[in-house]
Amino acid sequence: MQLIQQQAHFWELYQQQDNYYLGFAIDTGDAMHCWHLQLTDQQILAYQEQGRAALEQLAKQLSQQVYQANFSQLKAQQVDAVTEAKMQAAFQQWHQTASNS
Q1: SS3 61
Q2: Quick one: which H or E segment has residue 7?
Q3: Where are the alpha helices (DSSP H) in the chain?
Q4: What are the pLDDT digits (tens) for 15-52?
Q5: What pTM value is reported for the model?
Q6: Which letter does DSSP use for residue 79 in this model?
Q7: Which of 4, 24, 63, 91 is deepest in the core (most CB within 10 A)?
Q8: Which tens digit of pLDDT belongs to each residue from 52-72?
Q9: Which residues of 18-46 are buried (b: 16+ CB within 10 A; e: fewer)?
């Protein structure tokens, strides 16, 4: 698993083989919501075709859902604890490498 793109303090995109994962955080004012999601085939295809723009659109869509308290898509794509730990380890590795540069 490795971090391949990010928008600081908002989202990170990870890749492990053919799978893509999105770490996503949003502050609604009363709470910080953090999600670790596995991208669907359709979302992966959009990313492969449109690049970062597709991720920014997805993050905007997910933010709107959080503000509307609609967590169904987020819960449906949520990863298991093992995958979440791999994502967090990849972020720590990236952060350590970036700090040493």
Answers
A1: helix
A2: strand 2-7
A3: 41-50, 52-67, 72-77, 81-100
A4: 999 999 999 998 888 878 889 999 999 999 999 999 99
A5: 0.91
A6: P
A7: 24
A8: 999 999 999 999 998 898 999
A9: eebbbbbebeeeeeeeebbbbbeeebbeb
